[in-house]
């Protein structure tokens, strides 16, 4: 038996968990001779957990193979209920068992018979590892608490923003109802539609829980569905043809795309199908990646554009917004191919 510095070991309280009575007695004698204090002995894993809770030892010296709850299960329970450094002492050794011990929270691993010198080293290692685990656990707990607080705050902010959007839309609808001038009504209706677009985006950001990026296939489908619901088009059925690649954009670009779609699709709903020709009415939206460039196509099979120069120059408010958003926010290019109906092509980098 190797001699110990009793000043180092004398203040440490040890709980022994060993189902073999003779082995337990030998371990106790060895540790007492080395200057440790034995506060209790357990002959199974469940008893080891209960004694650890009540006696609060500095170290638990744990056998692995015990009746009922084995040493590794007991260690996991100790780490959950009453975190304490655990040293495994076993006659069995293989890499799988060592790995399982580490995952359970064991601080050190010793082979039988107990060597007092090795035990002293294991104590230092197990206490250091335990402190690391404890610090990490406390840090994770603080992060979880902060996350719960953030989620609570985000939920409150979401409801307030959502209510504000609804309030603004309601106020605009009230104002629209009081106006007789058709031009003034159209201006306020456009403003209301833009507020609804932002409300849809905000809702999708909250639902996905990602306030940095947005999957465009989900956002665009929900936005267009919301736009159609906002207009009374039951007597003139308009079909949506949506083909969006699996593209994820940052929220700034997603907002920009949403506002552009609002202007273009709203224009199609209001004006593209005003003719009396009985034909299928379709608004097509596609977003593809071509040569590392995103191509957004917005088209309808309506009556088309009567004054292409006015559209290309961006004289109307809607066109001004589309031009401005494409060039300043997306840093992209805008094109109006001359086709049957109306078609808008926007190219920009992700």
Which terms would index this structure?
5-stranded mixed sheet; 11 helices; alpha/beta; 56% helix; Rossmann fold; 5-stranded parallel sheet; Heat Shock Protein 90; 350 residues
What does this 3D model show about the protein?
By secondary structure, the chain is an alpha/beta fold. It folds into 2 domains: 6-141, Rossmann fold (3-Layer(aba) Sandwich); 209-348, Histidine kinase-like ATPase, C-terminal domain (Heat Shock Protein 90, 2-Layer Sandwich). 56% of the residues lie in helices and 19% in strands. It has 11 helices and 12 strands. The chain has helices at 6-9, 21-33, 45-55, 71-81, 95-104, 116-178, 182-208, 216-230, 251-272, 308-313, 317-329, and strands spanning 13-17, 37-42, 59-62, 86-90, 108-111, 213-215, 238-244, 248-250, 281-290, 293-300, 333-335, 342-348. The strands form 3 sheets. A 5-stranded parallel β-sheet has the order 2-1-3-4-5, sandwiched between helices. A 5-stranded mixed β-sheet has the order 7-9-10-12-11. A two-stranded antiparallel ribbon has the order 6-8. Strand 4, helix 5 and strand 5 (108-111) form a beta-alpha-beta unit. The longest helix is centred in the middle third of the chain and has 63 residues, at 116-178. The radius of gyration is 35 Å and the shape is elongated. The model is unreliable at 1-8 (pLDDT under 50).
What layout of secondary structure does this protein have?
Blueprint: H1 6-9, E1 13-17, H2 21-33, E2 37-42, H3 45-55, E3 59-62, H4 71-81, E4 86-90, H5 95-104, E5 108-111, H6 116-178, H7 182-208, E6 213-215, H8 216-230, E7 238-244, E8 248-250, H9 251-272, E9 281-290, E10 293-300, H10 308-313, H11 317-329, E11 333-335, E12 342-348
